[in-house]
Specification:
About 10% of the residues lie in helices and about 40% in strands. It is built from 4 helices and 16 strands. By secondary structure, the chain is mainly beta. The strands form 3 sheets. Strands 9-2-3-4-5-6-7-13-12-14 form a 10-stranded mixed beta sheet. The N terminus and C terminus are likely disordered. The N and C termini lie far apart (about 45 Å). It has one domain.
């Protein structure tokens, strides 16, 4: 068993592991993240609750090279929102963006009460989400989309280029008609500051919404050490993880500002 620099260990593999990590975010709040890896289906899941009660779930589907962010946002009753809302963002990933599901499933920590902070703060990523994913056709991208985003029918967003590349990677038989059934274009508003929800006063007006989503701690790569085997031959072995922090900014259109109350200048854009 090999000790990690962060006090996290590799253990014997099994189909699904569960790890709870105490993370200190950029705002100084302590949040608990749950991290799991499923070797059988080759995906990982990270979940945490923001200080405002929003539940964030991040699923990485390595088999189909897709990541899904789900945000369950509590309603603001004092402003007419009696229920929560769910939004999903689906994008492709590149090899090397995250460590594999089998490595996640083997992680353990010596001290479950220790507070973690990422070793590296990666540049923020921005996305212009111009299409809506039709959940009843989403298996062409990943079988996890319809499961994770079941409550986000009509609010599951992606990019046309991502859908095309993921479908091509899966060798899906999608012609032009198939792609049009899978995605529905969102009629874009002009990319002007005046169309941002933060600059829109009417709660019933369509506007361009922006959602900030930060993962304050996640294993972003493996560390390898050199040693020798029982026969004295040189070898390398996994001996640690490098951890990162990354923020994602999603821009997408909503039918009315009521669905984007967090995107207001008074709140610093979310």
């Amino acid at each position: 068993m090999l000790s990690f620099r962060l006090g996290i260990l590799f253990c014997l593999p099994f189909s699904s592991g569960l790890l709870k990590i105490n993370v200190r975010n950029q705002g100084g709040e302590l949040i608990e993240q749950t991290l799991s890896g499923n070797i059988t289906e080759d995906f990982t899941t990270l979940e945490y609750i923001k200080p405002d009660g929003t539940i964030i779930t991040h699923l990485v589907d390595f088999r189909n090279e897709v990541q899904i962010f789900q945000a369950l946002i509590l309603g603001e009753e004092e402003r007419g929102q009696s229920q929560y809302q769910v939004i999903c963002f689906v994008t492709r990933i590149s090899k090397g963006d995250y460590i594999a599901s089998d490595a996640i499933a083997k992680l353990r920590q010596k001290n479950p009460h220790a507070e973690r902070q990422a070793e590296e703060d990666l540049p923020e990523l921005g996305y212009q989400m111009e299409v809506l994913v039709q959940l009843n056709q989403s298996a062409a991208i990943s079988p996890h989309v319809s499961r994770l985003c079941a409550e986000a029918a009509g609010t599951t967003y992606s990019r046309h280029e991502d859908i095309r590349q993921v479908a091509a990677h899966r060798a899906a038989d999608l012609d032009a008609d198939g792609l049009s059934r899978l995605e529905r274009a969102v009629s874009p508003l002009p990319p002007s500051p005046d169309t941002r929800c933060s600059a829109t006063s009417s709660l019933a007006a369509a506007c361009r919404c922006r959602y900030h989503l930060c993962v304050s701690w996640y294993p972003c790569s493996l560390k390898y050490c050199k040693g020798r085997d029982a026969d004295g031959l040189a070898m390398s072995y996994r001996c640690g993880i490098r951890t990162c922090r990354r923020c994602h900014v999603f821009d997408f259109q909503v039918r009315q500002k009521m669905a984007c109350l967090w995107d207001e200048e008074a709140l610093g854009g979310g």
